[in-house]
């Protein structure tokens, strides 16, 4: 049985943030957890499916590979991953620990400063730019580490101190009758440290708003929907934690002449009915310039001509697509008196009745079919 799409499993869009993915995972993990479903095998399989989707989509490298190549780009059977043999107890503790502010058991977990969020930048390119590749400069508003305090949030010359309430754990234990519930420390908000003398430029946050200018190398052959990952160029993490990544989302603008499908290019080529009837060479456009195309005699409108290796070079495999030209026969307009006379002479020369079939077989076949249709109606 083929695997379901990871985003579909979690019920989120492909543009979902890591926070949205984790939220969806927690909800589904609680719903399908074996401790709740009383040994229901179908629910257990769904739980494993949710685990696997969560693992893949919360790992930025695995998610990028999956977005680009689907299930073929990731290995869900690597040791302990993909929901194959994960420990239900540990997952149960993680899910409910996050909700109630702590894990199972009496001891609280060590709190960590949060990693910076991933960012997305939409990059528009012309077809020529996408096919050939280029380097572009982009400006991205983001949060960067404060230079004054080196991201610690404490005034230069001072440093954060261990929270006296939770003793650096980021959590405190509250007893309610027979139950002991872990909660986020109200003094340090779960960070485990407090800042007595905050840095003025960042107001103790360790991060400041800034617009960064970045150079992005766009590889040749990219297409709409492709993403370019810039590691560590997302938002700075809290209190010196690692930064997130920046994903440059590519969108290729429509072209006046060509339409792209995969690595192939398509275009419509207008052709006079005389050239279509007699055949010959015509000039057609490609992304590298004009080339000669040999049109066979008696060409009909809609016929496709393929020019090998005149399409797009694949950004992944390196193979080159083709240019496919669709011929559209153009009816002449604004005819002079003499031109009309010549066309009448041509029409007369082709004959009438049964003689039409020789030069215009489709027309003859059509009207023969119409005649038969009405004859059948009257009989």
Automatic annotation (TrEMBL):
GO terms for molecular function: ATP binding; heat shock protein binding; unfolded protein binding; zinc ion binding. Signal peptide: none annotated. A zinc finger (CR-type) spans 133-211. Zn(2+) 1 binds at residues 146, 149, 199, 202. CXXCXGXG motif repeats lie at residues 146-153, 163-170, 185-192, 199-206. Zn(2+) 2 binds at residues 163, 166, 185, 188. Gene3D superfamilies: DnaJ domain, Heat shock protein DnaJ, cysteine-rich domain, Urease metallochaperone UreE, N-terminal domain. It is found in: Cytoplasm. Its cofactor is Zn(2+). SMART domains: DnaJ (SM00271). Keywords: Chaperone, Cytoplasm, DNA replication, Metal-binding, Repeat, Stress response, Zinc, Zinc-finger. The J domain is necessary and sufficient to stimulate DnaK ATPase activity. Zinc center 1 plays an important role in the autonomous, DnaK-independent chaperone activity of DnaJ. Zinc center 2 is essential for interaction with DnaK and for DnaJ activity. Participates actively in the response to hyperosmotic and heat shock by preventing the aggregation of stress-denatured proteins and by disaggregating proteins, also in an autonomous, DnaK-independent fashion. Unfolded proteins bind initially to DnaJ; upon interaction with the DnaJ-bound protein, DnaK hydrolyzes its bound ATP, resulting in the formation of a stable complex. GrpE releases ADP from DnaK; ATP binding to DnaK triggers the release of the substrate protein, thus completing the reaction cycle. This is Chaperone protein DnaJ. It comes from Paraglaciecola arctica BSs20135. The gene is dnaJ.
């Amino acid at each position: 049985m083929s695997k379901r799409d990871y985003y579909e499993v979690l019920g989120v869009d492909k543009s979902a943030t890591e926070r949205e993915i984790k939220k969806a995972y927690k909800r589904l993990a609680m719903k399908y957890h074996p401790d709740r479903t009383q040994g229901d095998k179908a629910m257990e399989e769904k739980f494993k499916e949710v685990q696997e989707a969560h693992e893949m989509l919360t790992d930025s490298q695995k998610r990028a590979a999956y977005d680009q190549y689907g299930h073929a780009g990731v290995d869900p059977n690597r040791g302990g991953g993909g929901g194959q043999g994960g420990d239900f107890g540990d997952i149960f503790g993680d899910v409910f620990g996050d909700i109630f502010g702590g894990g199972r058991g009496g001891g609280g977990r060590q709190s960590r400063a949060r990693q910076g969020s991933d960012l997305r930048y939409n990059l528009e390119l012309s077809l020529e730019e996408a096919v050939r590749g280029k380097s572009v400069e982009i400006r991205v508003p983001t949060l960067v580490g404060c230079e004054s305090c080196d991201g610690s949030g404490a005034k230069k010359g001072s440093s954060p101190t261990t929270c006296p309430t939770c003793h650096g754990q980021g959590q405190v234990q509250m007893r309610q009758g027979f139950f002991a519930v872990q909660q986020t420390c109200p003094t340090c908000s779960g960070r485990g440290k407090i800042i007595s003398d905050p840095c003025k430029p960042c107001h103790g946050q360790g991060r400041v708003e800034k617009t960064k200018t970045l150079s992005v190398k766009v590889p040749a052959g990219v297409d709409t929907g492709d993403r370019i990952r810039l590691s560590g160029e997302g938002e700075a993490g809290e209190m010196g934690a690692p930064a997130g990544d920046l994903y440059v989302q590519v969108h290729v603008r429509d072209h006046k002449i060509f339409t792209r499908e995969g690595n192939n290019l398509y275009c419509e080529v207008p052709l006079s009915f005389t050239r279509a009837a007699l055949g010959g060479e015509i000039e057609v456009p490609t992304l590298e310039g004009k080339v000669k195309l040999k049109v066979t005699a008696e060409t009909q409108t809609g016929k496709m001509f393929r020019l090998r290796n005149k399409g797009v070079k694949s950004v992944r495999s390196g193979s080159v697509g083709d240019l496919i030209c669709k011929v559209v026969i153009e009816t002449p307009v604004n005819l002079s008196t003499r031109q009309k006379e010549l066309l009448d002479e041509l029409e007369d020369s082709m004959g009438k009745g049964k003689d039409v079939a020789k030069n215009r077989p489709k027309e003859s076949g059509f009207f023969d079919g119409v005649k038969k249709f009405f004859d059948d109606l009257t009989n």
